[in-house]
Specification:
Blueprint: H1 2-9, H2 13-16, H3 22-29, H4 33-57, H5 63-80, H6 87-115, H7 120-149, H8 152-157, H9 160-171, H10 175-180, H11 184-198, H12 201-208
Helix pairs in contact: 1-7, 1-9, 4-6, 4-11, 5-6, 5-9
Pfam family, one: MFS_1
InterPro entries: MFS (IPR011701), MFS_Cyanate_Porter (IPR052524), MFS_trans_sf (IPR036259)
Protein name: Cyanate transport protein CynX
Length: about 210
């Protein structure tokens, strides 16, 4: 449960930390509104795109490896934000963080349900609550840290710490969790869901055909 909570805690700060610091970011980077909007749009785009690619990408690596890759992307994006040089780098860090978030968010619910098949409501409740809590904590603490250190980069890079903790906990998860992992379950599920959607000819005709 602790692993689930910590992983979920890292799936929103890279996005919600931007809002309270947006004015400082725009002034220091001379970013326009359109460029600044990419800081939140790109992660959301990744979260929508990755589940569609999962049936194909899942054939390359296991769930465990994908989650590790996703967490690593969040760690690197947070680290990158400590030494940003321009607006393009900040946008690149948003894309990297969004990719990591999308990977973990797409796979983690299936892992949660497999770890706790008899306690799915409780486990998913903790996962959802931690996910929302991470977003709220980032909106509160990022501007506080940025004000204390006199740098909005510190407010964004702060979330490197919980991201590293999540990677360590994921790598040290108990043997019972490792034994319960079935690498094909979520990949098979997403494959059926996505391919079924694309091949539902009648449904697509209903959507695209004018009334």
């Amino acid at each position: 449960m602790i692993i689930i909570a910590v992983l979920a805690l890292n799936l929103r700060p890279a996005i919600t930390a931007i809002g309270p610091l947006l004015l400082e970011i725009r002034c220091s980077m001379a970013m326009g509104l359109q460029a600044a909007s990419l800081l939140t749009v790109l992660p959301m785009f990744c979260m929508g795109l990755f589940p569609l690619l999962l049936p194909w990408l899942g054939q390359r690596m296991s769930e465990s490896v994908w989650i590790t890759v996703g967490l690593l992307a969040i760690v690197l994006a947070s680290l990158w934000r400590l030494w940003l040089g321009d607006g393009a780098a900040l946008i690149g860090s948003a894309l990297l963080a969004g990719t990591g978030i999308a990977i973990v968010q797409a796979i983690m619910p299936c892992v949660v349900k497999r770890w706790y098949p008899q306690r799915v409501p409780l486990a998913m409740g903790i996962y959802s609550a931690s996910l929302m809590a991470g977003g709220g904590l980032a909106a509160i603490f990022s501007p506080m840290v940025a004000h204390y250190y006199g740098s909005w980069g510190a407010g964004l890079g702060l979330w490197l710490v919980p991201a590293i903790l999540a990677m360590l906990l994921w790598g040290l998860r108990p043997r019972e969790a490792l034994a319960a992992e079935n690498h094909g379950v979520s990949i098979h599920f997403f494959s059926i869901a996505v391919r079924g959607c694309w091949h539902a000819t009648l449904d697509w005709q209903t959507v695209v055909t004018p009334a």
